[in-house]
Amino acid sequence: MTDYSDPKRSVELLKQLRAYGYSDQEFARLHHFGSATNQTIQSHIDYCSRVRSFRPGSNNSYLQAKLEQELQQLKTN
Known about the structure:
This protein has one domain (7-70). 62% of the residues lie in helices and 0% in strands. The protein contains 4 helices and no strands. The longest helix is centred in the last third of the chain and has 18 residues, at 59-76. It is globular and about 30 Å long. The N and C termini lie far apart (25 Å).
């Protein structure tokens, strides 16, 4: 079982989601800051590029798990 602590994995997931046409609005809906803060896929990729890891159980690790679920859902549809 993964602990979703690797920011590089979030970058991979976001790039794959973007290839499926995933929008900044869809991403902002999932992000723990909420859609009102105007979080974008690129802003999260930039953030992930600056950190070495996420704490297991943190908001960012939870977001990574949600991104993985979103990708799986897109692949099955």
